[in-house]
Amino acid sequence: MKGLSILHLSDLHINKKSSVDSIKELVSLCNKSSAQFVVITGDIIDCKVKFIKEKLEILNKIEKQTYYISGNHDLFYGFEPLKNCLKNLICLDNKTEIFEYQNKKIAIGGFSDRFSKFFGIKREEQKVLKFLQNYEYAILLAHQPKDYTFALKSNCKLFLCGHTHGGQIYPFHYVVKLSQPFLKGLHYRDQTAIYVNKGLGYWGINFRFKANNEISLLKLR
Questions:
Q1: Strands 192-196 and 185-189: what pairing?
Q2: Which domain holds residue 39?
Q3: Checking DSSP bridges between strand 37-41 and strand 5-9, what pairing results, if any?
Q4: Going edge to edge, which strands form the sheet with 158-161?
Q5: 61 and 26 in contact (C-beta within 8 Å)?
Q6: Which residues contact 136 (CB under 8 A, 6 or more apart)?
Q7: Which CATH number does the domain housing residue 53 bear?
Q8: What is the pTM assigned to this prediction?
Q9: What would the pLDDT profile of 56-113 be if each residue is shown by its tens digit?
């Protein structure tokens, strides 16, 4: 997968206070980037879809192939309405896709968030892993870092996630580390690269300290 570029977004947390201009700016950045495709690893929304429908539909103007999965906030506020808004984006909750790059097939799979069982949604982990195991080049998407163990089981080259906000406000970093194996950035386990995106949005209050928000352009080499 040498030379492949992926634009990694996470934890947008779009809500009533999110500006239309900021979302348009994000879409413009995606379209101008050198990435072959875009992934969003959960928590796109932070309120009910009916209040932000017009804002969410702006994301459909991303011209590059874009894959997304659910986060815990998406499930809480309504994942079905969200999917209905994002008609031009590909939902990979418990699904798989093939992306062709330089005559090679890259398998991409995703999980619904770990909280999905509380919303009557079954995570089809084995189905996704079995598909990914058949390909030399495979990428797994999940919202929470602790799902990295599934990437190791399926021999994925790359695991992408978010959820932590990088702690958002120091010293809450230490609290996050009690429940998640990774807080932010790049890590390696066996032959798998793990990247934890700190996210663009906020949870609770619109404030970050020692955990700046992030858009990641990942270049494989």
A1: antiparallel
A2: 5-219
A3: parallel
A4: 95-101, 104-110, 137-141, 158-161, 192-196, 185-189
A5: no
A6: none
A7: 3.60.21.10
A8: 0.94
A9: 999 999 999 999 999 999 999 999 999 999 999 999 999 999 999 999 999 999 999 9
